[in-house]
Each structure stands twice: as C-alpha cells, then as structure tokens.
Amino acid sequence: MTTTVCPSASTAVYPSFSSYVRARGPVLQRTARSLTANPSDAEDLLQTALTKTYLAWERIEDHRALDGYVRRALVNTRTSQWRKRKVDEYPCEELPEREAPPAADPAEAQALRDAMWRAVHRLPDRQRAMVVLRYYEDLTEAQTAELLGVSIGTVKSAVSRALGKLREDPELELVRAA
Predict the structure, then answer these.
(1) In whole angstroms, what is the distance from residue 24 CA to residue 46 CA?
(2) Predicted pLDDT of residue 15
C-alpha cells in the first residue's frame, strides 16, 4: 500500500491541467529531452516548466495555445539554468604561467628523420619518387600523376604500398622504440 506524502497534492485544483499533462506529457517530454543531454535533467526541466504553467493556469486565456506556452517555459527555464551554471574560473591579478610541454630531444628527432630518409631510399625508384613528391614536396595526387605521366589510381596504389613498406621497416621500428 502506498501513502501520499501530501494528500492535497493528489487532487488537482485544475482538472483541465491534469488532463492536459496526461494527454501532452510524452510530446512535452520529447521537447524537454531535446533541450538537455541527460534524460533525468529533461524530466526535471519539464517538471519545472509544468509547475510554472500550473501557477499561471488562470492567467492563460487561450488554452489551445498551451503547447506553445509550455515550450516557451521549457526554453526559458533551460536558458536560466544555463546562465546560472557554476563557473570554475575566477579573476586574479596575474595570469598563471602555462606549463611548457617537455621539449623534444633534437638528437632523437634528427635520428628519426635520418632513419626515415634511409628507409625512403630503400623503396623501389617509382615508389620513392611518388612518396617524395607527395610528402616531401607536398604535391597532390593529381599533380604527382601528371608529373610522372601516370594515372591518379597508380599514384594512390603505389603510395599505399610504399607506406606499408615504411611501416614494416625494421630500422624505423628500432628508432620509434628508442
């Protein structure tokens, strides 16, 4: 057996309001859900908007426009919640210094560049030419194809095979692991 915490809350003063909520509740819930990222927040938002509507029930002249009234209450309530959200930034006299990311070791970067260049030189001539034009000279696939007198598809497949060989190059694996 369930007991009501507030017995007067179970009997509505406005039966038309109760009928309206029963009839339009699912539609209004979808509208509230579209305004929030969380279903629980949507329920709270709708409850607040319906409370505001209930309090204004006698002042609403055209009950055919209730959906618009409740939607406006939903949007206004959500906007108020958004404006009142907690801000974790506080003004201060001095700006905090940003921590600099750890500087990359120039020797390691140079070792990787050297290993990459040696691996590119181990590629077959045609693949090497396409990789150099695409990635070192920054040409498009169409420009590379035109320059080498081949189709764009040939450039795509040759570069794909070349990149596969570079991924499997044992010297590059050693430098990346270090």
Answers:
(1) 12
(2) 86
